[in-house]
Write a structure and sequence with these properties.
The protein is α+β, with helices and mostly antiparallel strands. It has a single domain (about 5-169), classed as Electron Transport, Fmn-binding Protein, Chain A (Pnp Oxidase, Chain A, Roll). Helix content is about 20%, strand content about 40%. Strands 1, 2, 3, 4, 5, 6, 9 and 10 form an 8-stranded antiparallel β-sheet that branches. It has a two-stranded antiparallel ribbon with strand order 7-8. The radius of gyration is 16 Å and the shape is globular. It starts with a strand and ends with a strand.
């Protein structure tokens, strides 16, 4: 099955469900060397007169190395039947295993980005800006640092322009 490029204005979905509940794969690198990880944190919107996706990656994640080195990454969205494969990609490191071989995902190159044939929709993103979250930035005493960062480092946020959107034909 192939993909069709659409105008972003054609999209109609709930981003809270699509990102937070159904998850996405963030993928960066080249066809010869890339990594992917499952993400359930992110935002979609308009910033600097551009359509943007913001994603968050911890510096201890293998995908972080690829995102740092490359200008382009993708965000791939899937149906519920791929939940176990997404869970695997979120709980195993590409340093230790071949996630593609383990899950059976099939890669496809989309405008210098790596997507997956099984995806329903893929955003091709170009990094615009990054910043590191830090404890001093929290404005409330909700206990978020203690819960989210007790064992792992703070995330780096990547604000990225959505340069292309592909959907299944």
């Amino acid at each position: 099955m192939s993909f069709r490029k659409i105008n972003i204005s054609e999209l109609q979905f709930n981003p809270f469900e699509k990102i937070g509940s159904k998850w996405m794969l963030i993928t960066s690198g080249t066809p010869d060397s890339f990594n992917t990880m499952t993400a359930s944190w992110g935002q979609l919107g308009i910033l600097w007169n551009k359509n943007v996706l913001t994603c968050y990656i911890r510096p201890n994640r293998y995908t972080y190395e690829f995102i740092e080195k490359n200008e382009i990454f993708t965000a791939s969205f899937f149906g519920e039947q791929f939940r176990k494969m997404l869970a695997f990609c979120g709980s195993h490191s590409g340093r230790d295993c071949d996630k593609i071989a383990e899950t059976g995902f099939v890669t496809v190159e989309l405008e210098k980005g790596i997507g997956f044939e099984q995806a329903d929709m893929v955003f091709v993103c170009r990094k615009l800006y990054s910043y590191d979250l830090q404890e001093s930035g929290f404005l409330t005493d909700d206990g978020i640092p203690a819960v989210s960062y007790a064992k792992d480092p703070y995330h780096r946020a990547y604000i990225s322009e959505i340069t292309a959107v592909y959907v299944k034909e």
